[in-house]
Design a protein that fits this description.
344 residues; 11 helices; disordered C terminus; Aspartate Aminotransferase, domain 2; alpha/beta; 35% helix
Length: 344
């Protein structure tokens, strides 16, 4: 168990993950399509290195997860921003892609999204997948928050063909953040390049984590994990009830994950403090002792352009509020402290 595994991951885990797609989405997946990675972050890096050349354009949403931009830039790609907002539920559309001067080499979508929590409609994801297929654009679908949703279905890009790269992880639904284990579903032409890159850059994903993840996909684990999601849902309902009482009345539809992407300008004005340009709530375990001095309220957010400066069409000042923490903290208006875990 403590030795290296084969680069793509142990066969038992690849088979379990492949079976999950038949169970969740009704689509067959060959275990050979699955590569186990050191978290979804390493999976994203491997996919970028395997699929693109330096100078290729890759489209991402703004606001969006900052590591997409940072990784793409670090690996030599050119980022194309797709400004999203309330009119499109903070998700990209085919119309946005059609409006670009040229088709990008890749498109990154996230559903449920970090930081907005919104979910792409099934029909819209199908249209994006079809557009990418027509324009030789690689669709990379970040699905690490799947199974954490509140009444709105999460479609997988794998339902619309095998040309897309699908990114998964045990960090969110499975509550295994520190185990650093993710996976990719890969088109045939990318499987061998990703395997070779993995072998050179990491050798394999952590062997102990791979063994532990086998149990995470069991029926017994699923029952416990669904209980976590039920708790997130209760916290979300409480957050949505308390935000207006705190003067925060405008936010993205929190369809999934455990965030609310909210306009905090009115609350800041009421408190008589400056409104931050962009305020983002860090993950619950991020050690940032300066946080409370830099935010416009007692919630644990941090003034930062991490999630993308407001677009030309969206001037609201927004903050990402996590709900994966104790209900008492949400009720008090403090949300999650960065020193605390969601299981506090």
């Amino acid at each position: 168990m403590l030795g290296y595994t084969v680069a793509p991951g142990i066969p038992e885990l690849r088979a379990k993950i492949a079976a999950e797609y038949a169970l969740r989405y009704g689509v067959p997946v060959d275990p050979e399509e699955v590569v186990i990675t050191t978290g979804s972050s390493a999976g994203f890096q491997l996919a970028i290195l395997a699929a693109f050349e330096a100078g290729d354009q890759v489209a991402i949403t703004r606001p969006g997860y900052p590591a997409y931009r940072n990784t793409l830039v670090a690996l030599g790609c050119r980022v194309v921003d797709l400004d999203v907002g309330p009119a499109n539920r903070f998700q990209p559309t085919v119309a946005m892609l059609d409006a670009l001067p040229e088709a990008p080499a890749g498109l990154v979508v996230a559903s449920p999204s970090n930081p907005t929590g919104t979910i792409i409609d099934t029909g819209e994801l199908a249209e994006l997948a079809a557009w990418c297929a027509r324009h030789d654009c690689l669709l990379i679908s970040d699905e690490i928050y799947h199974q954490i949703s509140y009444g709105r279905p999460c479609a997988s890009a794998r339902q619309f063909g095998s040309d897309a790269v699908v990114v998964g992880s045990v960090s969110k639904y499975h509550s295994m953040t520190g185990w650093r284990l993710g996976w990719l579903l890969l088109p045939k032409e990318l499987r061998r390049p990703v395997e070779l890159l993995q072998g050179n850059l990491a050798i394999c994903a952590p062997a102990v984590s791979q063994a532990a993840a086998l149990a995470a996909f069991s029926p017994e684990a699923r029952a416990e994990l669904d209980g976590h999601v039920a708790r997130y849902a209760r916290n979300r309902d409480l957050l949505l009830r308390r935000l207006p009482e705190l003067g925060v009345t405008t936010f993205a539809p929190p369809d999934g994950a455990f965030y609310a992407w909210a306009d905090c300008s009115t609350a800041c004005a009421r408190l008589g403090v400056p409104t931050p340009t962009v305020s983002a709530m860090p993950q619950w375990s991020t050690p940032m002792p300066f946080i409370r001095r830099t935010t416009c309220s007692t919630s644990s957010g941090v003034t930062s352009p991490w999630y993308g400066q407001p677009s030309a069409t969206e001037t609201a000042q927004r903050t990402r509020m996590p709900s994966a923490c104790a209900a008492a903290r949400i009720a008090s208006g403090r949300s999650c402290s960065p020193e605390r875990s969601p299981a506090e």
